[in-house]
Give the backbone structure.
Amino acid sequence: MIDRRTFNKALGIGTGAATVSMAGFQLDASAAPGRHGRGGTSAPTVPAVTSGTHTSFARLKQVRAGLLDVGYAEDGPRHGPVVICLHGWPYDIHSYVDVAPLLAAQGYRVIVPFLRGHGTTTFLSSRTVRNAQQSAVALDIIALMDALKIDKALLAGFDWGSRTADVIAALWPERVQGLVSVSGYLVTNVAAQQKPLAPKAEYTWWYQYYFATERGRLAMQDKTDRHDLCRLVWDTVSPTWDFDDATFERTAAAFENPDYAAIVIHNYRWRLGLAEGERRYDRYERVLATRPVITVPTITLDPERDPFTAPGDGASYRDRFSGKYAHRTLTGIGHNLPQEAPTAFAQAVVDVDHF
């Protein structure tokens, strides 16, 4: 899930209708939709769809890319502008099961990969370190783009997916047409992670500390414990989302990947400085530790009912984006924003493409 250093305190969790609004919407004058849009036209309005309308994808594929055999969903025309949608933890490609057809209907080629250790994405070699540090995961997506002969794409993500998209936009901006990043700037600074947060905020991160223990590692390896822990996280961080058991189970199937536990545990331990990365990624991590500014056109989204959403309506990370930019807060929406509010997420992708 998101970086614990991106907020100063956790927001309260309660109940209420999961309605979407554009509260806190900000737009730089230079980034007005339509002013620099495709062909000089304004961004089209994405038709509204209810969360849960779709339960499967148009096409599921596999491709060898870098260190992995990557499983991914694809929708839309083969030669349309490319959108790559990136999921987080404990989620999978189904976070975009309603977003993908919305974007495909707008003419986009939509690629939704399982991240390493999830679903049908597997390592090509048993000798490869099961490493989930941020630059390694980002390079997986660069390798996927290369394998699919995609020179440039719109990147959109939440949680691990936001971090991965942010890292790619920071290190390889020439590969990014535009960025939609839920929770803003999530590039991890391992040294900064050593400083404690306020107790209420630390409480929100209970699972991160659990994963730092041997008990937590064993829980992720046990099928029943893993299933129930991930379900608890879903219930906690999306308090207004009325999903059914079948929705969770479709995603939970992705947790059966044999490398899932190792990848999840390494990710959270690495962020806390409790697990080493690999030397091959050191040069990227040194750059990322400087909190590089992202220059590509960006829309940031804050889910208002997500306990990890930082106060201040995006102010805490505004200075990390120097290009055309807009910020939106979605009222009544929790952590799994693209699945809870697919229309608003898809609209952000279309809008940033028309900056």
